[in-house]
What does this fold into?
Amino acid sequence: MNLYGNIRLSNWIGYISALLVAIFFIVFMNKKVNQLKKDESIRISNYAKTIELLNTEINIPPHTQTYLVGTIEQNTSIPVILVDSKGVYIDSKNIDTHIVNNPQTLEKELNNMRKQYPPISIILPFGKQYVYYKNSIFLNQLEYFPIVIFLVIGLFIWFSYWYFSTLKKTEQSLLWAGMAKETAHQIGTPLSSIIGWLEILKLENIDKKPIQNIERDVNRLQDITERFSKIGSIPSLENENVVKISKHAFYYLKNRVSKKIIFEFSAPEYPIFIKLNKHLFNWVIENIIKNAVDAMKGEGTIQLKIIDHKKNIYIDISDEGSGITKNNIPKIFKPGFSTKKRGWGLGLSLVRRIIEDYHFGRIFVLNSEINKGTTFRIILKKEL
It folds into this structure.
């Protein structure tokens, strides 16, 4: 199992442990709440019996009477309302005065109490009375406390998952960036030597055509080195003609692929200037076209169409290849994903990073049909 596999396993063990702790805590708290409910019901039953005893017994010793009155006064948390047989308010404890002073709110409060617990009836010399009560504020808080804890743990699990996912993506990005910069460095050393030898060849009295071809390829290698060196750093964006750059990148590959592939370019006749890094943007176009060439297996039509729209520029690149399945469309821009036997699956991942992170645009699959082809759409803002 690789490092990320171990991290994921550790994360899942932590999540499951946290969930089990939450479940145990909720079960434990639920038992405690039920016990407190019983205790409060017993206290109110004693409260009601004490009122009944004080009003029915005549010969109560003074110290016993003091004890019974103290029992009533000890209730400082459980809301209680005492009414007569007709529902007329007599007395209350731990109830807001605005509730008992308003007949409507009093009736509503009595109904709420009745839903929690049946009222306790007491028999007094002057008639029957009823003791209404409900859970104390502390008990209500305890009832909701496990839910709060469960939500907090759920939030913790979500945050942990988000954090580790972000950390993984960041590490992957740093890895790809480091590989790209190291590749640029490794290419740059022999390339400098080749450029030196090329300058020496120019001074020799030999056929210039091979030298020109070598020089063109050397320039190409310099562009590639420039592209790789910019991965992982914020590139500079210049005011460039997107039509000219797209056309150059599009037709560059025309002479390097099968003659059976038809290249069709469509764009406005006038230049369209937007903020671009031409080295990286060329890379985007070339990557998509190379994928299109592979998908068509050397035969078909590739189209690049530029649409000038109000605030945006749309660039649609279409092929007549094998298409992309619906299941794979969300995956194609992820690092390492590839349906081809060769390659690292970095092309489209870098394409999305260049367009979205560096040029603040969007790239997505506009449409795709199996064995009919695929269209990628790039959206770039005219003004950043």
Remarks:
- The chain has a mean pLDDT of 82.
- The two ends are 44 Å apart (CA to CA).
- The CA atoms of residues 198 and 215 lie 7 Å apart.
- The first strand starts at residue 80 and ends at 84.
